[in-house]
Amino acid sequence: MRRFLFLYVLLLLFLNLTPRVPSSPVANGDKLAHLVEFAALGFLGWRLWTYLLPLPFLLEFLQLFIPGRTFSFADMAANLIGFTLGVTAGWWYDGSHEGTEVSNEGGD
Question: Where does the VanZ-like domain lie (predicted)?
């Protein structure tokens, strides 16, 4: 699984740091693409989320230095939201939430 994660990170580097920007026929389709890309990253690497967390920020920031690319806070937000959703889905899918007790101290 880690090999696949490594290959996926390489794919994300390529997609986010190449000068050629693919166009989307859908309005704000690039935001959806960012969300899906980073949701997949979060899902695949949810156990390593602390190491992968800088990527949603870093890849967008590095676009400042790539000809033909632009920095966007909206894209960065889509990256982070997708990553968070992916990590949550990975955690849930793996079953790590099972056996976790929810306490209601001081409540009802």
Answer: 29-88
